[in-house]
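Q: what sequence does this backbone want?
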């Protein structure tokens, strides 16, 4: 990811509609399954925009290989313990964590083998613990923002679930998220064919609250069904 993007994330994580909504999605999907007072790991934590809320549920270890990300995370979320690490070789003992969260890491072009990274996260997960993967969906939606974040791949629900089952985890849930953003993202893909720009520079309010309101309605729908696809896809697995 471009270093400037980390600074943007830290600047807008409390106010940008996408970060606020994504935290709400993750809390809805995970909160009931988290061990109260447990030990949690956020792999590729960035500035903490999507995973720092876990520190309110237990002991959070925030891991990233980018020093700037860890500095910004430490400044904004002092309740978390930050650790410099590579997702491909986590510096933690086997079965160390009750839950592991990984948001938009496997998509990065620096990750040569997503299955190997998921195997490493599974290794540090205790038996019965949860692993949650959140990645960009719909492979053909390659936008200007993907170039800023160094996205090398996007995933389908099936592909993300296969990363869990391939490492022996039992699927608890897979679903799409932000399905309502797929049509406008398809238009942006065509318009932004050769551009490089960050989504965080635009529409921080989500069109005056319209996008956040639509995300709220989608989250209510997710209380009852799984969505077949979305601009993001989520897979949650439990270590046997």
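A:
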């Amino acid at each position: 990811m471009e270093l400037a993007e980390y600074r943007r994330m830290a600047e807008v994580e409390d106010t940008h509609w996408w970060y606020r909504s994504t935290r709400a999605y993750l809390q809805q999907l995970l909160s009931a399954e988290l061990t109260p007072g447990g030990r949690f790991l956020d792999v590729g934590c960035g500035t903490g925009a999507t995973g720092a809320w876990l520190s309110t549920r237990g002991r959070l270890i925030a891991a990233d290989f980018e020093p700037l990300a860890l500095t910004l995370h430490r400044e904004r979320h002092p309740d978390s313990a930050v650790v410099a690490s590579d997702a491909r070789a986590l510096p933690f003992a086997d079965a160390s964590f009750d839950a592991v969260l990984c948001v938009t890491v496997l998509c990065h072009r620096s990750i040569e083998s997503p299955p190997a990274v998921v195997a490493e996260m599974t290794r540090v997960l205790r038996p019965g613990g949860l692993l949650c993967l959140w990645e960009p969906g719909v492979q053909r939606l390659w936008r200007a923002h993907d170039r800023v974040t160094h996205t090398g791949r996007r995933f389908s629900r099936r592909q993300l679930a296969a990363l869990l089952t391939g490492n022996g985890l039992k699927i608890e849930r897979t679903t799409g998220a932000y399905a309502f953003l797929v049509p406008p993202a398809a238009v942006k893909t065509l318009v932004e064919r050769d551009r490089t720009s960050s989504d965080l520079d635009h529409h921080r309010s989500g069109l005056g609250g319209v996008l956040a309101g639509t995300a709220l309605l989608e989250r209510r729908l997710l209380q009852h069904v799984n969505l077949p696809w979305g601009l993001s896809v989520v897979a949650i697995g439990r270590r046997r």
